[in-house]
């Protein structure tokens, strides 16, 4: 899976972590700064479904905008 949080955020003119946190707060999503930074800066290993719902509400997007299926790597 490919993590597209920054792309989804950019569509709402959110380009900094502080702006993302402000959008999250507007929908009642208050992750710790370290968790928000990890979501912003890297591809998470796991994300709770209720957190995905809150992120989508904050960004006005769908889960498909945040997660993109990628074919498995050929070894």
UniProtKB/TrEMBL annotation:
| InterPro entries in the cross-refs | Cro/C1-type_HTH (IPR001387)
Per the database record, which ranges form the HTH cro/C1-type domain? 4-71
Q: What is the name attached to this protein's record?
A: HTH cro/C1-type domain-containing protein
Top-level taxon of origin: Bacteria
């Amino acid at each position: 899976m490919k993590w597209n949080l920054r792309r989804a955020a950019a569509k709402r003119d959110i380009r900094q972590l502080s702006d993302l946190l402000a959008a999250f707060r507007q929908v009642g999503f208050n992750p710790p700064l370290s968790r928000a930074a990890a979501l912003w800066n890297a591809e998470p290993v796991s994300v709770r479904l209720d957190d995905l719902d809150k992120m989508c509400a904050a960004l006005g997007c769908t889960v498909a905008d945040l997660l993109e299926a990628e074919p498995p790597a050929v070894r």
